[in-house]
Amino acid sequence: MRYKLLLVLVAVSVLVPLTSFVSDGADNVNASNYYIEGYLADTLGRPLDNVTIVVTDASSTQYPGTYDSETGFFSVGVAVNTGLSISFTAYGYTAISCMSCPKQQNGSFILNLTKDNYNSANHTYTITGYISEGLYVIMSATDGWVGGRVSYVNGPVKDATVTLTPTSGGSDITVSTNDNGDYLTSCPTGTYNVSAGRQGFITSGNYTITVKNNNTEQVPLVQNIVLDKADSTTHTGVDVAHLLMLIGVIVGILMAVAAWLLSRRVNEPNRLEIIDDNEDNEELRGL
């Protein structure tokens, strides 16, 4: 009995440390042995909102990073320091430069981690400089802008509909003009036919433009689309407005004549003679 109890105690003393070792190893599979840091902003050096940063290693393990939208600083903790690529995504933007990191076809960048950008004290690789130095990950807007004014000979056209039709196919983009006849809309990069129209006006012809990855400071404009008033003449050669006015005058004259005739008929005496039946009867009796 004592021998069996001794064996149990020995087994427990061996298994407990082993279990602890396995658990620690599992917890440290994705441990951050290194950190990759830098700065990211748009082409004008302005930090962006809602940026997602992910580092992927050779085994396709992904390490999400953090980003400060106030300063543009990002940091990603990784378990290894070789065979890594990094991707940056933000709605309406695409990363166009990551310092000396080559860009791949999928849009990510191959990380070049060397001893020159490594700080052994905190196990950190710094892959960019500062935004103020112009040495940062650059993201460019993927949407461009189209704007201008719709007018006619007497001034701006309010509430006109401006239509952007992609030449490569796809859905139209529409925008309305304001009180000054102005319009401005964002759109994906590409080539568009732009036209404008409104009820009572002849729809304009198409203006073909190409929208590139531009900032709002470099807006490609379609200026001053001019509309003509729609032709409202009838087959008589008189426009609709004047024709209606003429009809109204004629109707008024006819009503006046009818009223005059009616008043004369009421006021005239009755010219029909009334036959006296009694006198006729007396004459007949004398015969």
- The count of strands amounts to 21
What CATH architecture of the domain at 29-141 would you give? Answer: Sandwich
Radius of gyration: 44 Å
Query: What's the helical proportion of residues?
Result: 10-25%
H/I helix tally: 3
What is the N-to-C order of secondary-structure elements (H for helix, E for strand)? HEEEEEEEEEEEEEEEEEEEEEHH
End-to-end span in angstroms?
174 Å
Structural class: alpha+beta
| Multimerization state | single chain
What's the CATH first level of the domain at 29-141?
A: Mainly Beta
Detailed description of the structure:
With 287 residues, this protein is of the alpha+beta class. Among the domains are: 29-141, Sandwich (Immunoglobulin-like), CATH 2.60.40.10; 143-229, Carboxypeptidase-like, regulatory domain (Immunoglobulin-like), CATH 2.60.40. The strands form four sheets. Strands 1, 2, 3, 4, 5, 6, 7, 8, 9, 10 and 11 form an eleven-stranded mixed β-sheet that branches. Strands 12, 13, 16 and 20 form a four-stranded mixed β-sheet that branches. A four-stranded antiparallel β-sheet has the order 15-14-17-19, with no helix packed on it. Residues 14-29 and 215-219 have low confidence and may be disordered. It has helices at residues 2-27, 240-267, 277-285, and strands spanning 34-42, 52-56, 62-64, 66-67, 73-78, 85-90, 93-97, 109-110, 118-119, 124-126, 137-141, 143-152, 155-156, 161-166, 173-176, 182-188, 190-197, 201-202, 207-211, 225-226, 228-229. It has three helices and 21 strands. It is rod-shaped. The chain crosses the membrane at residues 240-262. Keywords: Membrane, Transmembrane, Transmembrane helix. This is Carboxypeptidase regulatory-like domain-containing protein. Pfam families: CarboxypepD_reg.
